[in-house]
Amino acid sequence: MTRKVPDDERRARLATRHHLASPAHSVSETAGAMVGLHSSDPATVYLSARARIPGLKSGDMEAALYDDRTVVRILAMRRTMFVIPTDLAPLLHYSSTVALMAAERTRAVRMVEDAGIATNGTKWVERVSERTLEALHARGEALATELTKDVPELGEKITFYKKDGSVLSKVGMSTRILFLLAIEGRIIRGRPKGSWVSSLYCWAPMEDWIGSPMVEIDQPQAQRLLLTRWLRSFGPATELDMKWWTGWPVTQVRRALAGIGAVEVQVDSGPAYLLPEDFTPVEPVSPWVQLLPSLDPTTMGWKQREWYLGPHYPRLFDRNGNAGPTIWVDGRVVGGWAQRANGEIVWELLEDVGTEALSEIERQAAALADWLGERVVIPRFRSPSDKALAGN
Predict the structure, then answer these.
(1) I need a labelling partner for 274 at 20 to 30 A (CA). Which of 93, 262, 301, 367 fits?
(2) 386 inside domain
(3) How many structural domains is the chain composed of?
(4) Domain that residue 382 falls in
């Protein structure tokens, strides 16, 4: 008989394995448990880690990223930026990112030719890519503007037009070439220019940054290893959850599931899967409360979210499916929060949580305001709740 995993058990698994009711002790442990901290918005990485590591300071994250380099920032599943333990970089790269390489190179070639930069876009992209990499090796780390001084071709512009023929934007080829080199695993985003919420990064050669060449893994093996790591933290999960989170075709998801011997169970939304060694029911956990940032990997972890999100999707997600800041009580999303321009943390509850949970929300909001100090963090992707609470 197929085992039923009730929603309460799924919430108990989430609480401990995502370090929301049991603390993590380091940035790399946290990033590993979550199989990556979302990094599309730089502030998310810091706030997600802070929610899971008692006493974390922003300098601890900076040290892990840029000094000790126990974690790195790379583009992987769903073309999304993640901060992951350095030793997981080959897993994410070969399971997911390599599949993007051919299409992105073709796109760059087409842009060059369509813009009239060169008649042979393939040779132009190859030449400029190699010269950019040589310049980066010479500098060690560099901003795109600095590399453009060494490789003037990076300053070539591509114009994008609206449907009515007017100019939408102009983008430098430095953006495309650096993006392409990053997808190919040849360069990596280093230290940002400015504060920890800045998205203007220096670039560095991948091999120099991590200290050795990236170990090559064939795609099926990398996918099996990655799905094993993910199910350990996010299982049980449905096939739709896995297809969405990985960004893989369903045939590759099924191949990986078969390869790791995943066991079918039943959740409220239908068939789901657990690792064979993770079949035993887990015990309930003590009550807990957390304020999680926009794009937190727990909030974004599954495609089918009703069991923890309830009816609150329209209020707490933007139109493109990006999660705003959320309030969690015992494994369920119950409201949203925001930071105003004066630094104040404000929130709204979308359901009754009781006096004890309310007191803990108040305490955590005050603690978060103290931690942020004079820094005001505006999510890159704004939910209706965030906009309304922040007053903009």
Answers:
(1) 93
(2) yes
(3) 1
(4) 310-390
